[in-house]
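Quick one:
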Amino acid sequence: MSEKAVTELLQGLVAALDRPTPALDLKAADAFVWHGDAGRLEPVAEVNRIDIGLLKGIEEQKATLLENTRRFAQRLPANNALLWGARGTGKSSLVKAVHAAVGEGLALVEIHRDEIAGLPGLLQALRDGGRRFLLFCDDLSFDSGDTSYKSLKAVLEGGIEGRPENVVFYATSNRRHLMPRDMIENERTSAISPGEAVDEKVSLSDRFGLWLGFHNMDQDTYFEIVEGYAEHYRLGKGRKALRAEALEWSMARGARSGRVAWQFIQDLAGRLGKRL
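Output:
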């Protein structure tokens, strides 16, 4: 790199450091996306979600998360929640639906997995935000060599300040302990103190007071979801024909889940010329 290019690069870095951090308008919307590199919250005008009544086959998980969130919105003690399990079973849909169902001025803030290292800065900004925040990270997991999980551990429970009273953290993951199984097994076989090494890796999930498991659904539940969507959107398809087509759709994909059911409904609505 030439001397001129280096100078320009350094000047750009100095200018970025001198640039004032934009003020965060924490009442601009009821949902935000955190952009850690810019230190700002982007308001979301309309959240991509479905009505909580359309989420079928997860009644226990729905009731538990709804009650925990209502307590939090009412300034009562509430737990961080980890929604873990099979793909497409409604984990992230439930978080967004619960936020809408609770209301009460509760703000939803989405933080992406690769922004976790900057989580302390976000929590500092939210601490005096004048409202309550549901912090949401979708598809949270950590791979071998990734140490950012230690920042999350400290923020959730272990740090001096800990989690602000007006923030609760919900995460979804396909992994119960947020770590791949082979990573945990490798610690058992290669570490000097296997027990301590494994405890270090899995203790992150212990920071979540609620563990809600989501599992593969049976055919009847799949049909219930499809029929609920079809009725809600008035697709006007006979029950027998609807089930036959939904079954064929699921078999072609080799899976039954809420996501597969929704994809079928989108295809059906398109073929019928109806908007969702």
